[in-house]
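**Paired protein data**
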Amino acid sequence: MNKHYETLELDKILALLKEEATCDDAAQLAENIVPVTDFYEVCRLLKQTEDAFSLISGYGAPSFSGLANVNGPLARANAGGSLSQRELLRIAHTLRSIRTLYEWRSHCSGVNTSLDFLFESITVNKYLEDKIFSCIISEEEISDNASELLADIRRKIRRKSASVREKMDSMIHSPHYTKFLQEPIVTQRSGRYVVPVKAEHRGNVPGLVHDTSSSGATVFIEPISVVEANNDIKMLQGKENEEIARILYELSSEAGSFADGITASYDAAIQLNLIFAKAHLAFKMKANKPIVNADGIINLKSARHPLIDKNKVVPVDISLGEEFDTLVITGPNTGGKTVSIKTIGLLTLMTMCGLLIPASDKSKISVFDKILVDIGDEQSIDQSLSTFSSHITNIIDIIAKADENSLVLIDELGAGTDPVEGAALAVSIIEKLRSQGARIAATTHYAELKAYALDTAGVTNGCCEFDVETLSPTYRLLIGVPGRSNAFAISQRLGMDNAVIDNARRIVGSDNRDFESVLEKLEETRQKLDDERKEAADAIESANKLKARAQSEKDKIEQLRKNELEKAKREAEKLIESAKRQASDFLIELEKLKKEQDNSNITEIAKKTRRALKNKSGEMDELVNPRYIAENWDEDYKLPREPAVGDAVIIRGIGEGEIVEINGNKILVKSGLLKTRVKLSDIMLTEKKKKNVKPQRNLYRTSSRADEDLKTELDLRGMTVDEALGKLGLFIDKCILNGMSEVRIIHGKGTGALRTAVQEELRHHPNIGEFRLGTLGEGDTGVTVAKLK
């Protein structure tokens, strides 16, 4: 790395960025980032990071898990080579990761970003992904479903093996052979079934000897009766291996035909991984996007050095390049001078790398062609260079390279030699660099440089504040204020004899005393103004909080009023419409009754009239019946306030109830003996009935399965397909009742029959939104993860 960048510790920032990358190639890209000097390229990189930051804020972070560099295997497959099961599985996992990334972006609907061209470069290949996963169960196992021939061969092997085992089990339990055996067991040697026979009885068990124990007491004999069957098994196993090799070659050929598309998609995914790693680092640093310029203007607000503990770092405001091109920072040792100029340099480099910076919004950063640094003690014994010589060597190199597009940062300018000569040399170096157009930030202890900054246009003082009362620095950087020496004040606070201090003051001369006196008055005035400004800021903040609170309450009252008016309007409209309809129906009924009227049926007419009146009255009552409201839900209804435990509510599709528990957007309500969880949007607040009112009889008398303890994982291993599907249906119903969003179904790997049946059931289930096989960390192909609607 460029030594100037390393001095500013850019390598440590890139190491932090590397940790945020998920896959190795993205981590390598992060480690090898080089600051960009082109203004438009810097803006493009920052925009990408900002867009990734916004997407994470709004939709959560995308997953890059499973991404692996498969370019080598793909190139070999494209050239006609055959890949191993492990390589094909890595390709399938990479395809799944690429597809997951693409689907994540499709869920961020309606948002256009500068990253879209990368997402659009991704090609989803679910065909090849599914084919590989359906054929290869693991790195050691090929599925029976990979081909009909393979399934047939394995069936024959199983039948032959069972026949051999049966014969050998009969043999080892035979009284004739038991006495010759070391143990009554069947084992394998070189893939053939054998029995352990005592060495002295090897002639009593006819067959082929395949192995001998380490002690020589046991020989492993393949009985002559199963030799041919074992030979058949060996032949079948050879055919099995040939068929597996054919399947792998076929899959490799298919993968090779898609090599270009997969490689391009992988490269786009790696670039996205790096950009989202930058966004993750910005979240951790609480960083913001700066306003970038190419005019040499730096204006950092509440900037924090990113490598200092966030609980200890003191934010600083730093400006350079707008009203002045040179900043001379003075102050005591360990006061924060070096950290201040390092912060300028490091945040500029981070910006040029496309990283957001730990500073307040609307901070300004300039893009420079060169950032030249001389910071730290670079004494070299090997080169016989003193600290002063080393610094001067660096500064000579800086002067040779600096131009109008350079930022120069120098720590302890002119130190390490005679103070008079050192101060003169420091002023001359600054003048030379200014004449070349560079932006300069330098730290020093020399009083001559303070005076130079006061007298020279385009040069300003800065100082790191020091609290004499506590003898400690505050680490605040003050622009426009020269730093005081504080040597006499510190010595006096530590108990130095006043006579010694007074004599020292006389020795430094009247000019220096007058200068320090002016600085002291300036410092007192500045401190007083700072206190007053802080009080004013606190008062403004307090007033703004009160104003915001009052406005919030006003908005709530206004919204509540609007809700109540809308509710009353809707109810009135319903009642008017219902009354009109019922009046019309009742008039028609009366006309019918008049036509039917005669002396003989007068009693019947009266009965009909009473029944009609009763029916119409019942319909009117139904409009305000909770059961009617529950079944004819008003989608425009808005809650007038936040619900609370104990509130009486009407539940969509159920009727009256009471809130028992509130957990975010999920509410546990009780209606009679029924308890169930519903969404916030499925309840309507109502008044509690008085105690003297008898409860309604139309209560539900069933208990809810949703009350039972429920897990989000179902284990179907060991079950038949019919048993498993029955359990699966009940499990999904329970999860739906409890508002679950995602479940895991464990079906094991095995032959794949149970997995196929489960996925076929999920594919047609009305309450399943989507499903996928588990990743390597979730149980691989032995688990299916499903999302509920």
In short: The chain has a mean pLDDT of 82.
